Amino acid sequence: MKNTWKIYMLTLISFFVGTSQFGIVGMLDKIANSVGVSVATAGQLVTAFALANAIGTPIIMIAIAKMNQRKQLLLALAIIIIGIISTITLPGFGLLMVARVVLGIGTGMFIVTAYDLAAKLAPPGKQGGAMANISMGFSSSLVFGVPIGRIIAASYDWKTIFWIIGIFCLLAVFAVARTIPDMEGGGAVSLGQRLALLKNPRLAVTLCVTLFVFTGFSIIDTYITPYLTTVIPPKIEISLILFAMGIASVVGSKTGGLFADRIGAFRTLMGSMFIQALAMVLLSFGSGSLVVTIILLMLWEIACWTFGAVQNFNLVSLAPESSGIVLSLNSSFVQLGFAAGAGIGGIAVGGFSIMVITWISAASVVCAAILFIFARSFSHAKKLIAN
Question: Which numeric CATH code is attached to 190-387?
Fold first, then answer.
């Protein structure tokens, strides 16, 4: 019990760290106006963050593997603070992009280390719950961080939320330094060892399913604020809709496991992709009803995060002997999906119309479903040949 409060402390820090990633989604239009670029161009800030997180984090974690985990946390927080200071003080879009790269690396380092450290601080048999707390803290930034960022940006300035995050991260440095004990890391897993798992065809294709699903998610999520300002009446408060969508993401994360236990992972994942695609197609036609629009967006959000929760279990079942590496690879593919979605969405918004993003999102999820069916069919055919 003596370490329980330390796990909750890491959970709280994870919330603020997560807000540094997701917070800009709710105020993308404000950022675009501030630095004098289009919304489509500003969306590439998401791409820069996600690519740095997906590619930079594994490389840095390998380089600092011999460092004890308290120092790893402190280094991650220091990098995040540098990224936040750069975000607040450096002028121009180009330097803001660099700041997002720094934040992406620092955030990835912190979350990876916090997961492992929480499991070590937890009493025997409670490791899973401790890691779930870190996940809850990070994902809660979707529920609260995005709408809070929108409210603050509307009332003050979009940089204000980063002042707040920076102050809490500075306090976190002192808290971690005083309370977290020295704990050795688990040792380095080389990039070669990580990438060797991709030689498993079914695992590689299933990771591509993750990529396509989160590409579809990011296309909408990155540009949700300009999309909502286009389709809803001006008098409606966008932050309330963002909050409702955040609640829906938590519902999806919590219910995914329940569905997987009752109807199986394959049916749950296929059902979630079907609902995602259907919701986007229905939004594409446009109902003219605010209530229907909000319901469809919430169903879409629930389906997306149902997929996220169950896909981890599905991937681990494909390579249970390498679960840690598989989950790390999946996290990287999620971030690559965020990057691809922001990039593709930016091209669509800049070259066509904000309304086209729903069609592209639906198409991406349909590609994911086709790949998923192919992976399952390939596995069944391989078993039949073996028999």
Answer: 1.20.1250.20
